[in-house]
Design goal:
rod-shaped; 2 domains; about 80 residues; mainly alpha
Length: about 80
């Protein structure tokens, strides 16, 4: 509720300052909505599909390296006796 009251306060300030032009008012409302949307996305830590694919490839590469390191460690233990 606090965030919605901020939006209404901003709209009220714009009206008080004399911004009555429809285009100016609509662009300001869109800017406020876009900034709130971006803030929400940032808080949710949502990533784009491209970023997700990059992260997925990195994880697969790291898992492969870990698997190889474990296999090398097992081989070294076998050779010692």
């Amino acid at each position: 509720m606090a965030k919605s009251s901020e939006v209404f306060e901003k709209i009220g300030k714009f009206l008080e300052n004399g911004i009555l032009n429809y285009k100016d008012l609509s662009s300001e409302i869109l800017n406020i909505c876009k900034s709130k949307r971006d803030e929400f996305i940032f808080k949710m830590k949502i990533v784009s599909k491209d970023e997700f694919e990059i992260q997925k490839k990195r994880i697969e590469k790291l898992e492969k390296q870990i698997f190889e390191m474990k296999n090398k460690k097992k081989i070294k233990k076998v050779k010692k006796p």
